[in-house]
């Protein structure tokens, strides 16, 4: 009887040890699984030119300044890049107007009414813009910005170089295909737009 009782205690102790070990292993496995899932959710894979590139998700606040600068740059590129083609002008300006409020629409309407775009087409003029720098103040919302750029107005015989400085503010809006950064330019105005010089074309 003593041997049976001792054996039973040994079996019971061994069984409890095995069960405790299984519980610890299961808890550790669950913990590691949740940790792996959390890490995987921060990773995004982008397919570019047949190659999978890993990207990392982050809070918007970490990239506000970068996204805001790119939004302002994209708007100015669309609004001021013009060719002597009515469809190109409309396409570019339409893309730009998705990124700004009615302050940009009013400037576009004024330019159109004054025959600016007609002059571009009839004179076979192209206009390009090079962004020098964009300053963003993200300490206060809505975010104020200033954009410093140079314009090249390309005519048949010459290239007119102009300095352009604009300012406005950025408000958060929903992201969309037409507005991937999720910003809207408000109270946009031109501070400076002056001639720098004329270069003759060869």
From TrEMBL:
Give the transmembrane ranges: 12-31
Which InterPro entries did the record assign?
Conjug_transposon_TraK
Sorted alphabetically, which keywords does the UniProt record give?
A: Membrane, Transmembrane, Transmembrane helix
Question: Keyword Transmembrane helix: yes or no?
Answer: yes
Name of this chain's protein: Conjugative transposon protein TraK
- Give the originating organism: Flavobacterium soyae
Classification of source organism: Bacteria, Pseudomonadati, Bacteroidota, Flavobacteriia, Flavobacteriales
């Amino acid at each position: 009887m003593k041997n049976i009782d001792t054996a039973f205690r040994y079996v019971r102790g061994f069984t409890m040890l095995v069960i405790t070990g299984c519980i610890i292993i299961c808890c550790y496995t669950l913990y590691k699984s949740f940790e792996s899932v959390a890490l995987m959710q921060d990773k995004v894979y982008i397919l570019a030119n047949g190659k999978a590139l890993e990207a990392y998700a982050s809070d918007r606040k970490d990239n506000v300044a970068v996204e805001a600068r790119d939004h302002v740059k994209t708007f100015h590129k669309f609004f001021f890049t013009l060719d002597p083609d009515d469809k190109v002008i409309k396409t570019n300006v339409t893309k730009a107007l998705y990124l700004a409020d009615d302050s940009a629409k009013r400037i576009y309407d004024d330019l159109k009414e004054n025959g600016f775009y007609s002059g571009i087409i009839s004179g076979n003029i192209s206009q390009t813009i090079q962004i020098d720098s964009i300053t963003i103040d993200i300490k206060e919302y809505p975010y104020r910005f200033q954009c410093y750029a140079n314009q090249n107005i390309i005519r048949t015989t010459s290239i007119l170089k102009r300095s352009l400085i604009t300012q406005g503010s950025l408000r958060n809006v929903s992201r969309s295909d037409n507005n991937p950064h999720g910003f809207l330019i408000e109270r946009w105005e031109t501070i400076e737009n002056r001639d720098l010089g004329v270069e003759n074309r060869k």
